[in-house]
Design a protein that fits this description.
The protein has 267 residues and is an alpha+beta fold. The chain contains eight helices and eight strands, in the order H-E-E-E-E-E-E-E-H-H-H-H-E-H-H-H.
């Protein structure tokens, strides 16, 4: 059997054309089918007009007509750079924060703002400066939760038209000037000394009140005073002391004192 060379060339040419056509078809088919995971959505534009968001799962698009923009629905962490702020009581501090947010409406996050991550970052920086600058330093140090909640409410309200939900805002670090740190240390030391003096004075007052009550009870019962004398002697002897104290009632020597006083008056 004789095969013409021209026929063989035409067959090879046809096979090559079929291979190229099949490759192009597979390429178009692969670009028309997209597999979207659970934590992502695609925003679909057809000839420039918004069609909506698609996913998760298999999504079919029309090649060269549809344009797909992928949006991540997971919670994103945004680190707000250090901001130098002057508080309400004119103290210069440096503060930074972290913002946790996620996309709730993929279509709005693509259509309403050019880059929702950059826009949220800039909004968080300006909001942090305005909120911290509107309060005094003591409130920044003591009411951290209140400031975090206020930051979250403001940022969440302003990013809501972009389809973004801010779940939390936390102030991370607060840097104070060295002079302010020394002043706060002196203030804390003075506060501790004041509390120590107050506690000592309250202890003296309570001790005096108890001693006064004990004196009234001893006055009403002389036997109680005598028992107290004996208890004191026992405590002294228990310490291995060579000196022994004997209490002498004042009534025993009172006549001698009176007699000596009369002699001095006559003289």
């Amino acid at each position: 059997m004789v095969i013409d060379i021209s026929d063989a060339g035409s067959i090879l040419s046809s096979l090559g054309s079929l291979f190229i056509a099949g490759f192009i078809f597979l390429l178009i088919l692969s670009s028309a089918i997209k597999i979207i995971p659970e934590y992502r959505r695609i925003v679909l534009f057809r000839l420039g007009r918004l069609v909506g968001s698609r996913g998760p799962g298999i999504v079919f698009i029309v090649p060269f007509i549809d344009k797909a923009v992928t949006v991540d629905l997971r919670i994103l962490t945004l680190d707000v750079p250090v901001q130098e702020v002057i508080t309400k009581d004119n103290v210069a501090i440096k503060v930074n924060a972290v913002v946790y947010f996620r996309v709730l409406d993929p279509a709005k996050s693509v259509v309403e703002v050019e880059n929702y991550i950059v826009a949220t970052s800039q909004l968080a920086q300006t909001t942090l400066r305005s909120v911290v600058g509107a309060v005094e330093l003591d409130e920044v140090l003591s009411s951290r939760e209140k400031i975090n909640q206020e930051l979250q409410n403001i940022i969440d309200e302003r990013t809501d038209p972009w389809g973004i939900k801010v779940s939390a805002v936390e102030v991370k670090e607060l840097e104070l000037p060295d002079g302010m740190k020394r002043a706060m240390a002196r203030q804390a030391e003075a506060e501790r000394e004041r509390r120590a003096k107050i506690i000592a004075a309250e202890g003296e007052l309570q001790a005096a009140e108890k001693l006064s009550e004990a004196a009234h009870k001893m006055e009403s019962s002389p036997v109680t005073l005598q028992l107290r004398y004996l208890q004191t002697i026992r405590e002294i002897s228990g310490e291995r002391n060579t000196t022994t104290f004997f209490p002498i009632p004042v009534d025993l020597i009172q006549p001698f004192i009176d007699r000596l006083t009369r002699k001095e008056d006559k003289a």
